[in-house]
């Protein structure tokens, strides 16, 4: 069976900045794989290449054996994507938000309603489904976005900082749903996060990125043992040191924007 | 979890090969439906946007009808003006769509849409016709107002259908123009300034307020390259029954939409980088 994600020698540059530098990575099917690192590490650029938003400038990236450059549309059908910013449409109800993505993924008309209902219910939003998304809390919006991503039955769920700015209860709620979906469908989950304790608890394997390269790769337990530390925070500190100023202004701005929208 | 989600579907490179016409039709339908759902929930925009065309018709239209300052070939000036104001209200709805696209970029909505199996051209066309749907709803308000003010509008259903098609095409063009400009300037405040800067020149360099025969030579040249003029000419012919060049008007509008969709699709990627 093909790996869920296979990246080899990926390189991506924005003008003077080398965002991703000779990155190679493999994610196995049904894994929850965490991509960790400080702002500007190259996590989001890697995700943008995998989700076909950016063409790879050098190297190769495949999703379930399909090249992201040559099979863009087929790759997109395999992916459910939740971006970092809160992206549900506040002017539509929860159900309408999910139904839109069912249509955009060509879910057959006969199945559309049932699939949308199932995704909404799986995310615990059945009672709020007909309310405008603008009235949802931050945690509910994140779960709505998960429902939008799940309605097309993707094989790979790509989550960019899914819990950023959420309170601990909402964060736990989001992770509970992610792990339940993985257990039920065998879906692969690729997630970026700043929260080391979340990665430690929920990810099967993690890659720690810094300045566009992978500095450490393995299960959280393996990495903690290799760093002779107590937690992934220690691993993070060991590989990034005090050099945490690499994140660009746009990263910080995007993070603040998300936090602001979450109130 | 009590509900069973659909199992992930099979991996196939063929899954990316779908009928492009079907994809285009389904994406346009999806985007238009979203626009209608939003309008159903919040009608304030329709009402507030009706104020400006109402002022043009009630104050400008009625005043100049009495003045008889603009030669309209025996047609009451209000009748001459109404299709122009209809096109103007559609222009105002669509020319600021670029700001909406930049907001969608900032909110992550655009990236999420671009990760669906929707080619950029289909996404842009869907957005363009969604702007057209919003403009059509606006047009109904303006038409009702014009009828109340005594403008002799056609009751012919075919001509009314033609009117809707012309408005959709005109709005789609200006929406795509706005998306293209948004892709170039990338910032909402800049886009607001550019929208303001081009809106009135487009309006005044058209036949919306006065006939081409009274324009100075240089303005006639601008009028001939301005798609808004072809939109107004067609609307006037269909709604009021003035002589119009419908084939040319439709041809120019369809061609302009095709070029604008191409340009907006080509530049859309800049917004997500």
Which sheet architecture does the biggest sheet of chain A show?
6 strands, mixed
Assembly of the depicted chains: heterodimer
Categorize the overall geometry of chain B.
elongated
User: Proportion of β residues of chain A?
Assistant: 15-25%
Q: Element order, helices and strands of chain A? A: EEEHEEHEHHHEHEHEEHHH
- The number of distinct β-strands of chain B equals 0
Q: Please report the distance between the alpha carbons of the first and last residues of chain B.
A: 37 Å
Number of helices of chain B: 11
**Mean pLDDT of chain B, rounded to whole units?**
90
What is the β-strand count of chain A?
A: 10
Structural class of chain B, please? mainly alpha
Keywords:
heterodimer, A: 263 residues, alpha/beta, 6-stranded mixed β-sheet, globular, B: 273 residues, mainly alpha, 11 helices
Description:
The complex is a heterodimer of chains A (263) and B (273). Chain A has 263 residues and is an alpha/beta fold. In chain A, 41% of the residues lie in helices and 23% in strands. Chain A has ten helices and ten strands. Chain A has helices at 43-50, 72-78, 94-104, 109-122, 138-150, 168-185, 196-202, 220-226, 232-240, 249-262; strands spanning 5-14, 17-27, 32-36, 58-63, 66-67, 79-82, 156-160, 188-193, 205-210, 213-218. Chain A has a six-stranded mixed beta sheet with strand order 6-7-8-3-9-10, with helices on both faces. A four-stranded antiparallel beta sheet of chain A has the order 2-1-4-5, with helices on one face. Chain A starts with a strand and ends with a helix. Chain B is mainly alpha-helical and 273 residues long. Helix content of chain B is 73%, strand content 0%. Chain B has helices at 20-41, 44-67, 77-95, 97-106, 109-114, 120-148, 157-185, 188-204, 217-224, 227-239, 246-268. The longest helix of chain B is centred in the middle third of the chain and has 29 residues, at 120-148. The relative contact order of chain B is 0.14. The model of chain B has no long low-confidence stretch (mean pLDDT 90). Classes of the chains: A alpha/beta (263), B mainly alpha (273). At the A-B interface, α2, β6, α3, α4 and α6 of A face α1 and α5 of B.
